[in-house]
Write a sequence for this structure.
């Protein structure tokens, strides 16, 4: 016991926070983000609705998340992440169990959007990244990438597992299993999470002072402990450029994630094989998230975000116009690369605006990407219902993602606008 106690003293408590947050994120995001696509076609068949209607479920959930973002962000900054994780995980877990009892599309819609999604948006990635942002500055890129990779690990495990349950026992049993798993893992994991390093007499990153060389290098990358007031941050040009770039990227990736299996089935792949490619995407994104997070602590995160958008644009265009079966396997890899830029995007918010108001700033940005991610999956489903093809969708998404890359390239730190 003494050895364990000494080990805990030697290991910076922020790494324990990061581990617990990653576990919570793995179960929540693995189920509610990465694995939603395996429910898509079974729900469409069982409820007797169109692709656009099923897309509406996920689109409305994302819109609701965007609209609640400012409120959730303010609550996180005021009361801490632990409380929001407790509330959100409870709603998401119980809501999934209740979903198994419904027999109509609109009953499913209201429970999914106003219970499951409300809990998911409030209880997983948002509060986890907010608390990690408070514990790390120098290692912000790496720590955010670990959180993002944890969601991919969760998806890698949960997508094929839920697909097996759904295809053999039905989507209702899959929903019950997922709800119970969230309650059993997320709630206990939130208990030891401390709000800030200062509350324990510690410093971010576990070191009270940085050497001059490290400080100079971080300043060059825009990584320092800044503290912008909310109003000043909202008036800055970088806030709007970054928010728009993230909204455009998410509009594409969320829609593609929702339609991942249907797109591959459209190109001739079976549902079961497509589900395994979801797992391949999640597995690949673990490597890309960690690698890009490590690089993001050394090179400009915005340039990396722009560069890593290009494989996804190429993949969508080849998927649209090439008949080669190999493009079906390039698609999940390219998706993993663009997904790997997510921690860079969220870390940029911390780099630009600091630790104190991080959740609030991210919540306000959430209104923009909430609207974008509401429209894009529905647009994709509607186009497929009308044309029986994803060709137009892939072309439009390629243009949108190119626009996001351009915005990332022209980003600069807010402090440079006030010199």
């Amino acid at each position: 016991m003494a050895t364990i106690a000494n080990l805990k003293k030697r290991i910076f408590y922020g790494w324990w926070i990061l581990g617990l947050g990653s576990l919570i994120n793995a179960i929540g995001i693995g189920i509610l983000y990465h694995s939603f696509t395996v429910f898509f076609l079974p729900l469409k068949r069982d409820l007797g609705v169109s692709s656009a209607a099923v897309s509406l479920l996920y689109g409305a959930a994302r819109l609701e998340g965007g609209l609640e973002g400012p409120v959730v962000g303010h609550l996180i900054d005021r009361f801490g992440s632990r409380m929001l994780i407790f509330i959100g995980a409870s709603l998401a877990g119980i809501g999934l169990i209740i979903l198994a009892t419904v027999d109509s599309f609109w009953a499913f819609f209201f429970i999914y959007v106003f219970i499951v999604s409300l809990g998911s948006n409030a209880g997983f990635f948002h509060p986890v990244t907010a608390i990690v942002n408070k514990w790390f500055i120098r290692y912000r890129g790496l720590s955010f990438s670990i959180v993002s990779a944890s969601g991919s690990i969760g998806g890698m495990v949960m997508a094929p597992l839920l697909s097996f349950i759904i295809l053999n026992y039905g989507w209702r049993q899959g929903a019950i299993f997922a709800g119970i798993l969230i309650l059993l893992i997320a709630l206990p994991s939130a208990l030891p999470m401390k709000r800030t390093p200062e509350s324990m007499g510690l410093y971010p990153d576990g070191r009270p002072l940085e050497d001059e060389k490290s400080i100079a290098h971080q300043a060059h990358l825009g990584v320092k402990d800044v503290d912008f007031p909310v109003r000043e941050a909202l008036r800055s040009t970088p806030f709007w450029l970054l928010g728009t770039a993230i909204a455009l990227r998410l509009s594409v990736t969320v829609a593609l994630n929702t339609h991942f299996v249907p797109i591959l089935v459209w190109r001739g792949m079976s549902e079961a094989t497509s589900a395994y490619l979801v797992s391949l995407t999640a597995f690949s994104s673990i490597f890309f998230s960690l690698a890009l997070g490590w690089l993001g602590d050394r090179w400009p995160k915005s340039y990396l975000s722009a560069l890593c958008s290009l494989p996804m644009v190429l993949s969508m265009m080849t998927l649209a116009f090439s008949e080669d079966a190999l493009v079906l396997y390039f698609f999940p890899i390219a998706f993993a690369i663009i997904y790997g830029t997510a921690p860079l995007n969220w870390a940029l918010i911390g780099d630009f605006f600091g630790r104190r108001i991080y959740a609030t700033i991210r919540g306000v940005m959430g209104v923009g990407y909430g609207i974008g991610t509401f429209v894009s999956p529905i647009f994709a489903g509607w186009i497929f219902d009308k044309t029986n093809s994803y060709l137009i969708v892939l072309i439009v998404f390629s243009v949108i993602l190119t626009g996001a890359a351009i915005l990332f390239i022209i980003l600069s730190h807010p402090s440079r606008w006030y010199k």
In short: The two ends are 54 Å apart (CA to CA).
